[in-house]
Amino acid sequence: MHTYSFERLEVWLLSRSFRKDIYHLTSNFPKEETFGLVSQMKRSVSSIGACLAEGSGKITPKDKAHYTNMAYTTTLETLNHLIAALDLDYISEQDYLTTRSKIETITAKLSALRKSQLT
């Protein structure tokens, strides 16, 4: 089986694991959030890896960097939703801190990847 370049990116592997974490975390949200915050969090976290995959197929470094930047901004969107979940008492402070730490790792790696794509 062929392995695509994005599948070898450490940040993509982290985003894959992070998506699983968010899906697990949101499984305990109130049912009335199924089509609200839960849906938004699942879509934004899924977009992180999807942007990296799509960007890996682009030809120019500038285009690749654009999709890496989109993955970065989508990660920040996920953080915003995570903060909302904390504010609404859907998650504990500990879950928030643990998840935020993962976001900080992913954003740092995305920043480094984008920088390398532009040099």
UniProtKB/TrEMBL annotation:
CDD domains: 23S_rRNA_IVP_like (cd16377). Pfam families: 23S_rRNA_IVP (PF05635). PANTHER family: FOUR HELIX BUNDLE PROTEIN. SUPFAM superfamilies: IVS-encoded protein-like. This is Four helix bundle protein. It comes from Pedobacter terrae. It comes from the Bacteria.
